[in-house]
Amino acid sequence: xxxxxxxxxxxxxxxxxxxxxxxxxxxxxxxxxxxxxxxxxxxxxxxxxxxxxxxxxxxxxxxxxxxxxxxxxxxxxxxxxxxxxxxxxxxxxxxxxxxxxxxxxxxxxxxxxxxxxxxxxxxxxxxxxxxxxxxxxxxxxxxxxxxxxxxxxxxxxxxxxxxxxxxxxxxxxxxxxxxxxxxxxxxxxxxxxxxxxxxxxxxxxxxxxxxxxxxxxxxxxxxxxxxxxxxxxxxxxxxxxxxxxxxxxxxxxxxxxxxxxxxxxxxxxxxxxxxxxxxxxxxxxxxxxxxxxxxxxxxxxxxxxxxxxxxxxxxxxxxxx
Length: 321
Hints:
Elements: H1 10-15, E1 22-30, H2 37-45, E2 51-59, H3 65-76, E3 81-87, H4 92-101, E4 108-111, E5 116-117, H5 122-131, E6 136-147, E7 152-156, H6 160-163, H7 165-172, E8 180-183, H8 184-190, H9 201-210, E9 214-227, H10 229-232, H11 237-260, H12 267-287, H13 291-304, H14 309-320
Parallel strand pairs: 1-2, 1-4, 2-3, 6-9
Antiparallel strand pairs: 4-8, 5-9, 6-7, 6-8
């Protein structure tokens, strides 16, 4: 029941700081995260510069997540404008797009995943970087991965984004949605998230966003990405899913290079990075004994870099298996 979830009252939250709102809309997609969600939501209203609007998209949760959301909204309605959208379960891309439709009036947009936490100065430090640079489309803070179950903390510096966002995303992926504030016009011009993608939706959109202007980096604050052991411990989950996602991501990068590669500052460098990604997938499938898929991956590696000697070696090895 909603009354079982206790949050600070709106008055208590408002009294904790002198609220300075910003022209920023925040989208929080959530599916079955009743335990992790409250800390994420509290990190929004605890900002030194509170966003002007928060849209929570409940993507068809089947547990008590809806009750948690209602209790939190009741406690925080006086802090900022909060809206709840409840949809059928269609995935994170569709949920984010649903939130974007309601935030077109705001000049800036941010996403916060339900298992992530903003530091209190996130908006105050990151948003001005974007406001002060009219040619910039996004600004990103640093991040930390925290596996609280095992006590592991891994830092994720993102300064390469400001040098070459394409190189960064080809090397490290694009799991930066919660770390970034976007110029709303750039997101809308890029066509939003592709709801048909099972994974890699961030890279598919953010690469297109990066074509429209510079990408900034703010090193003074750090977003927390929390991870649980639940999915990690599912039998067979990690190896199977990681290989499938690696191929899916590589196909996204391929499509981007075919359509927009010549618009990037280092097309040949991106080709080499994509080749190395395909080569890695080839060796992964070879270790699993799938010579057919392995050979296809090595073939893609050679396609994107004719000088990839390890790709040729892997292809020959898979032929002889």
